[in-house]
């Protein structure tokens, strides 16, 4: 039976986004692993306790599979905090999830086996693993918001193009088709939506350089070298209010471009590595998102591992 997501009686719906948890679960391969895994789990438990979310989203790099002796067990360890707290959860996958021996399709199959996972099976003929859409029902049982989850891949498969992979054309066509169907069921009006994937779109670089943003941009914005057009499709469909990614550990900013808020999460495991050493420039944590039924907007903030809500700097581009 399909598991339903619902707005609360007060009309709100709270999502906690954990990014780059990178569980390894292999003490003999990395002596720091038990400590870092434990600290990451403690952070997640504290944030779940404080925010009481209706949904937890693991926004990719759930595990560091190349350094894990048993990637499936590492994945189970990462998502255990949601299962143990009986919180609905869903995951998308990042580049580190599939660097080891475990295919990302197998990892997606694994998440579907867990009691509190609300993810769905992949649509046929669509690239990647972990493409699905969820709806959140209002008090009448009618969908009032939608949540898109997309596989942004890992690394480019083309010899002529280096760097990270990109969301493919068939995935974009699937997103457009699902968006149209949801609008048709909503009397022709686009259903308010959020989108989650791991690797930031090229527009994340544009919004930082051209718009006022809130948050940090400490490291290179590592987008794909190819712009496959997902952002243009979202602008045209008029349903996505915000996108949420991980990937760049030292970036946690939000900025609005053409009516869509482009947001990073806050890295949940560590902020960055410099010369092979862990360097936390600010506390680890999670992004929190609060939707309200009937409103085409959302609130969002960073909850830190120390329990505090982050005070984020305002960034003005050079051209202002």
Automatic annotation (TrEMBL):
Stored InterPro entries: Calcineurin-like_PHP, Metallo-depent_PP-like, PAP14/16/28/29
Pfam families: Metallophos
Protein name in UniProt: Metallophosphoesterase family protein
Domain named Calcineurin-like phosphoesterase: residues: 40-249
């Amino acid at each position: 039976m399909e598991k339903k997501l619902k707005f609360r009686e007060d009309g709100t719906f709270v999502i906690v986004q954990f990014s780059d948890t990178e569980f390894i679960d292999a003490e003999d391969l990395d002596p720091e692993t038990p400590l870092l895994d434990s600290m990451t789990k403690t952070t997640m438990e504290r944030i779940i306790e404080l925010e009481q979310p209706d949904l937890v989203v693991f926004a990719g790099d759930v595990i560091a599979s190349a350094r894990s002796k048993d990637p499936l067990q590492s994945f189970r360890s990462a998502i255990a905090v949601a299962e143990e707290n009986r919180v609905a959860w869903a995951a998308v996958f990042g580049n580190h999830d599939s660097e080891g021996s475990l295919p990302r399709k197998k990892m997606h199959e694994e998440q579907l086996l867990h009691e509190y996972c609300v993810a769905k099976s992949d649509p046929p003929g669509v690239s990647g693993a972990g493409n699905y859409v969820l709806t959140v029902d209002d008090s009448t049982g009618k969908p009032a918001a939608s949540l898109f989850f997309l596989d942004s891949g890992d690394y480019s498969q083309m010899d002529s193009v280096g760097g990270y992979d990109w969301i493919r054309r068939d995935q974009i066509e699937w997103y457009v088709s699902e968006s149209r169907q949801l609008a048709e069921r909503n009397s022709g009006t686009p259903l308010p939506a959020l989108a989650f994937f791991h690797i930031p779109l090229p527009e994340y670089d544009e919004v930082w350089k051209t718009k006022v943003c809130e948050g940090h941009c400490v490291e290179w914005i590592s987008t794909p070298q190819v712009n496959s057009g997902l952002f243009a499709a979202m602008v045209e469909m008029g349903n996505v209010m915000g996108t949420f990614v991980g990937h760049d550990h030292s970036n946690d900013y939000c900025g609005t471009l053409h009516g869509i808020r482009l947001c990073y999460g806050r890295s949940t495991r560590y902020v960055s590595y410099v010369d092979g050493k862990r360097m936390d420039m600010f506390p680890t944590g999670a992004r929190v998102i609060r939707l309200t039924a009937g409103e085409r907007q959302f609130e969002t903030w960073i909850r830190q591992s120390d329990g505090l809500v982050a005070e984020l700097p305002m960034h003005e581009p050079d051209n202002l």
